[in-house]
Amino acid sequence: MRRLRADELPAGTVDLAKALIGCVLVRNAPEGGSAGRIVETEAYVIGDPASHAYRGKSRRNASMFLAAHRAYVYKIYGTSFCMNVTSERANEGAAVLVRALEPLAGLDLIERRRRTTRAIDLCRGPGRLCQALAIDAALDGVDLLRGRELWLAAASADPRPLGTSRRIGITKASRRRLRFFERGNPFVSGPKKMSW
DNA sequence: TAGGCGATGCTCT
DNA sequence: GAGCATCGCCTAG
Fold first, then answer.
1. Is nucleic acid strand C under 7 Å from A79's C-beta?
2. How far: A7 CA to C10 C1' (Å)?
3. Is the distance from CB of A182 to CB of A40 less than 8 angstroms?
4. CA-to-C1' span, A121 to C11 (A)
5. One-letter-per-residue 3-state SS of chain A
6. Is the pTM of this model over 0.90?
7. Number of Cα atoms under 13 Å in the Cβ half of residue A161
8. Which nucleotides of C are covered by protein (CB under 7 A)?
9. Which residues, 6+ apart, have CB-to-CB distance to A192 below 8 Å?
10. Which residue, A18, A78, A144, A176, is most buried by CB atoms nearer than 10 A?
11. Which of A16, A39, A25 minimizes the C-alpha distance to A132?
């Protein structure tokens, strides 16, 4: 598993959201390592009414304003965490939400954390993948290219064709097609009906 | 198998 | 006090 370098990733939130499909998210926890291949992302661009950064910096979204390739982790609905990759220069406020992974390594650990062995349910959905890789607020702001506990590795295989759709679970600007996923991959979340 | 809905707690207004 | 980038259980078909 080889670390991604900054010069391998495109500038701009939408292009980064596409480029991250197929890359691998690696988690090094005290209890062991685990990893998954990114199969679904959503872009939250500058000036996007659906973005947490839209109303400016606050305590919760502060790390969304870090320079590109940092983790922005926050708690949603009191129960689940969501993980984003920042995508612009410092103080711009944009990120790519990682919505689903295909489990690759540390399956035992992932199954124990998720309390299920049903492969399809292990990392499908932003809250689930955070639980699967033990990603929580302690990892908010870490550098995903240089970090030791959580980092990004280069694509493990050539990705299949990319699909796009509206984003899931939001009310504002919901018509914009800023969700990207690997077509035909069973580990993708959301509606099965796909469009591109 | 798909869709409805309650739990849950934090953040911002 | 409202709303939220969700999850998992339950029910109906």
1. yes
2. 49
3. yes
4. 21
5. CCECCHHHCCCCHHHHHHHCCCCEEEEEECCEEEEEEEEEEEEECCCCCCCHHHHCCCCCCHHHHCCCCEEEEEEECCCEEEEEEECCCCCCCCEEEEEEEEEEECHHHHHHHHCCCCHHHCCECHHHHHHHCCCCHHHCCCECCCCCCEEEECCCCCCCCEEEECCCCCCCCCCCCCEEEECCCCCCCCCCCCCC
6. yes
7. 6
8. 4-8
9. none
10. A144
11. A25
Amino acid identity of A162?
A: L
Exposed, middle or buried by CB within 10 Å (0-12, 13-18, 19+), for A2?
exposed
**Structural domains of chain A, ranges and CATH numbers in brackets:** 6-182 (3.10.300.10)
**CB A150 within 8 Å of CB A25:** yes
Residues A59-86 have pLDDT tens digits of 999 999 999 999 999 999 888 999 999 9
